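ok trying this again, last paste got cut off
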Amino acid sequence: MIDQFGGDVLTRPADAERELAIERLQAFIVDGGYGPGDRLPPERDLMVELGMSRTTLRKALEKLENDGAIWRHVGKGTFVAAKSVPRQPGWLAEISQQLTPVKMMRARLCLEPAIAREAAMNASAEAVAAIRRAEREAVEAADWAGYEAADDRFHRAVARAADNILLAALYDQLNQVQRAVAWRSVVRETERPPRDHPSFAEHARIASAIEARDPGEAQAAMRAHIGSVSARLFGEV
């Protein structure tokens, strides 16, 4: 963009924040499996889940509504419209085609332990509650699909707890690639996770470290968890 004097005009921080909020809301809809006609959670829940203010959330909702991706009905809620939310930007789809599951997990090892460390230093009480809620939902899941959705909410809640919009956006992009790369290679032999599924204890360790405000332990716990998942699913770390 060029101003009247011929110089570049930088994007205002407020505009950048709104664009990131829109991307995060789109990712939440896609990753949560919301389809046409599905109702989204109430605004107060979305604020906690996405880690954004009511004003920022409403601006993102307004943009998606104007784009025809959602529609809102006073007293009933917000619904996904027939017009689908884009599932992946072109560059993410291209990366997904070139990345192996093991390299995907190594990328997670680079980013998510650092995010967990930040979460331990910055998480609000509401953010910790969201992490604990997702932890419980994973344990209580009736099948693998329910577990994977809860697992996704757990890791997203940790990213939101870091209270850094850039880290949250980076996690959302990483997660979109992961969904295209990693899980297409996974074959499940049971209908649901066993009661002693290792991730349950690993999630609990991460959540406890964040709740205890222990950055080093949170980082180590997340690294151990992702390494464990990679070893179980792909035989490598």
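PB: full thing came through this time. Confidence is low (pLDDT under 50) at residues 1-12.
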